Amino acid sequence: MLIAMKAGATDAEIDAVVRVIGELGYRAHPIPGAGRTAIGITGNQGPIDPSHFENLPGVAEAVRVSKPYKLVTLDLQPEKTIVRVGDATIGGVELAIIAGPCAIESRAQAFAIAETVRRSGARFFRGGAFKPRTSPYAFQGLGEDGLRILADIRETYGLKIVTEAVDEASLDLVERYGDMIQIGARSMQNFTLLRRAGKSGLPVLLKRGLSATLDEWLLAAEYIMSEGNYQVVLCERGIRTFSQHTRNTLDLSVVPAVRRVSHLPVIVDPSHGTGKNCMVTALARAGVAVGADGLIVEVHDSPSEALSDGAQALKLDQYEQMVSEVRAIHEVMAPAIVS
Ligand code: PEP
Ligand code: MN
């Protein structure tokens, strides 16, 4: 259920509804919108009697939510969420660009790439310090040393740091050094990790699982939001199909599909979505054209020497060219996005 407050409802009236929800043993999620505040309710197993709320001052209506998700839905919030990462945003008018290596390998490597990322005008730097690798013998990341390098990059270049947490212990560390928590495709249904991210004060980048449906992905976002963290960005990064010409199949149709049901921003990862350097720029252009709020792209100063995902990394000059191309497309797209 969600409670739609009247346009002029006062803070005291909203607080009173929140109190009643708490007294019933449920959790209230007040979401202020442009026209009105809506209050989502979670924690109930069955239907809630609307008469608890209907006569409270300031309440417009108590609406039953029939969908499996209660907080990611446009029913709760018709306006798109703008996720704020310090003074940078994802989901607003600006195209968000998150760029950097797959993994932080060394200070020299990370700084060489960050310099170009900064110069491109991107606001976010990516790089894994904890890498979820298919093989236990592959490079697993530098751990906390990698996070220290990332924190130094923020200091030097003012870039916001987006980096992956693979478990609760690494999430504690990401909170200490980073600006945005990445939850990887393989962790999309790690429900304890999702709940822990939901208790964080940092925004979360939630990648789609390798075989996740739209509903499963949105319910993963719902796990985070149900704990009180509403700053969630969805990321389409390709799914498993029978195709053999790419590492994954980038499902761009999911971008407008998300838009139809959710207020959360959605970005596209053409690097994992193709796995091939020669296809990344084409799919980055397509991602922006389909209406994504941003891109996350892997870049390396020497892809042939990369310790992970070198085959899909853009070289520095290719990255700069890609940024200028996607910005041009975004400019053409802007009126369509606003309307
Ligand atoms: C990554 O961003 O480097 C990564 C491991 O992504 P994914 O979880 O999408 O595979
Ligand atoms: Mn990678």
What does this structure look like?
The chain has 339 residues and is an alpha/beta fold. 37% of the residues lie in helices and 18% in strands. The chain is built from eleven helices and 14 strands. It has helices at residues 11-23, 51-54, 107-119, 144-157, 168-177, 191-198, 214-226, 254-261, 270-274, 277-289, 316-338, and strands spanning 2-5, 27-32, 37-42, 59-63, 83-85, 88-90, 96-100, 124-126, 160-164, 180-183, 204-207, 232-236, 266-268, 294-298. The strands form three sheets. An eight-stranded parallel barrel has the order 7-8-9-10-11-12-13-14, surrounded by seven helices. Strands 2-3-1-4 form a four-stranded antiparallel β-sheet. Helix 7 (214-226) links the parallel strand 11 and strand 12 (232-236). Helix 6 (191-198) crosses helix 7 (214-226) and helix 10 packs parallel to helix 11. The longest helix has 23 residues, at 316-338. It is elongated, with a radius of gyration of 21 Å. The structure holds phosphoenolpyruvate (PEP) and manganese (II) ion (MN). Phosphoenolpyruvate binds next to loops. Manganese (II) ion binds at residues 102, 272, 298, 308-309.
